[in-house]
Amino acid sequence: VEAAVSGEAVAVAAGAAGWAVWALDGAVALLLVGLAWRCLGTRNLLEAVVLFIALGLTLALAWVRLGAPDIALAEAALGAGITGALLLNALRRLAVKSAAGAAGAADPAAPEGDGGVGKRAGQAWRRAAGAVMAAGAAVLAAWLAWLLLGLPARAVDLPAEVAGALERSGVENPVTAVLLNFRAYDTLLEVAVLLVVAAALWALDPRETVAGASDRAGLELRAPSPATERAAGDPMLGALVRLVSPLVVVTAAYLAWAGSRLPGGAFQAGALLGGGAVLLLMAGRMRLVLPPPLWLRAGIVSGLAVFVAVGVATLAAGAGFLEYPEALAYPLILAVEAVLTVSIAVVLIALFAEVPTLGRATEEPELATPREEP
Amino acid sequence: VTPALLTPPLLYALAGAGLVALGLRAVVARPHLFWKILGLNVLANGVFLVLVGATTAGGAADPVPQAMILTGIVVAVSATALALGLALRVKAQTGSPHLPEEEDG
Asked: d(Cα A348, Cα A341) in Å, to the nearest integer?
């Protein structure tokens, strides 16, 4: 209630301009729900992925409107950019007809006699179940909305607590202070999650497909040539990569450096650096084929290793785990951020590693858009 | 309803509630694994919007949920990468991007 009252005061003070701003926020909020609705409701997978990327970019706009530019940067780079690239990459691989896939496709001739009547009854049941699930989701949305409208004023004033402790954190950006000092545990475990996912993805690739593979393992950089331009399938992509790559490196370095005072930090910078590398991969300038080279594995582990080392060092100095001494907080946070930036970028590259292919023929994707069975 | 009652943060929190419901429905109802993964991501984004929208009062967003969401975005991207890898493995092994019990769907 208190929030609503203070909101009322703000809105009255803003006057007519408030209405225009409110209309903008309302339009963005509606667009979010509309994009999600279409993305999850369509039967065309490529359309769904493109709508999802649009949803991510609209979300970045919403974060700016909510006064959270740190999240906006991360959402645009990671939520829309990297996730979008991952989805498009997976879509391409899904469309590749594998030998196993062709064999399995003939399988669902399961219960032969269960044709006409049984199938129609099954469809009716399915439709009824779908309606129940949609109704359940609508009830959930209404319930959540009702809870949000009646939310009590917060019991603990966290922004004030953060502002009060900011001076001792070593940095000036409150979000960075929370991420790398007050709640550094969260960030440590998050880096561990990244490491585990990269390892798990590599483990998913079956050994048997690797035997007799024609591709050379490791990370390979290719100089621009007519051949790589042709492989990318688009001459504009080569030009874009040439122009954008240096900018990406400079911007990422700036974001990591500015993170202590302004919006930005290791994750945004790492995502940007990783995104630039993904662009190189997509343009055929870089290729990572499993198993990965040793330096790449070291790069992936380095973020977590340095973070843990800093934690152990603070323990040895007599403070708690990751409890920085006030005088050293800034250099320690800066060091952790620098290593994390590179480490996160390397993990993001690792997520796009390719399984060695047995022959060139399997690399040609089907051009037909994959569709879900009705 | 006037803007006085529906402040912009609350507006985004309500949109977040909508995303949560839409995402959850897709996870449960769509048989294709890729739509389940998209649904999970929409669900996560809905939770993020609710977290910040419900804790923002008087202009500035609370830095603690902001930091949690930054962590959440990275974890969501990692989980998506792993889920897509698993989905492709299911397709490679069974020939269908659906779970076996939803094969006919």
From this structure: 11
Q: Is the dihedral of CA A373, B39, A65, A86 positive or negative?
A: negative
Which chain A residues contact residue B24 at CB under 8 A?
137, 140
Residue B9 confidence (pLDDT) above 80: yes
Nearest to A292 by CA among A252, A238, A350, A331: A350
State the pLDDT at residue A11: 53
B99 at A interface, C-beta within 8 A = no
Q: Express each pLDDT in A229-285 by its tens digit.
A: 666 667 777 788 888 889 999 999 898 888 878 877 888 899 899 888 888 887 777
Is A71 in contact with B49 (Cβ distance < 8 A)? no
Interface test with A, best of B20, B47, B73, B101 (most A CBs within 10 A): B73
Q: Can you give the pLDDT at residue A72?
A: 92
- Whole-number percent of chain A with pLDDT over 70: 76
As a whole number of angstroms, the distance between CA A334 and CA A188 comes to: 15
What are the structure tokens assigned to B19, written together?
Answer: 């995303």
CA distance A92 to chain B (A): 11
Q: Which CA distances in Å does B45 have to A75, A78, A134, B14? A: 10, 12, 19, 12
Interface test with chain A among B70, B88, B93, by most A beta carbons within 10 Å: B70
CA angle A171/A177/A183 to nearest 5° reads 150
Give the Cα separation of A256 and A272 in Å (integer).
10
State the complex-level ipTM. 0.92
Give the count of Cβ contacts less than 8 A between chain A and B: 276
Nearest alpha carbon to residue A296 among A342, A365, A237: A342
Question: Is the Cβ–Cβ distance between B73 and A83 less than 8 Å?
Answer: no
State pLDDT tens for residues B32-69: 999 999 999 999 999 999 998 888 766 677 888 899 99
- Beta-bridge mates of residue A221: A286
Chain B segment 1-30 residues within 8 A of A by beta carbon are: 2-15, 17-26, 28-30
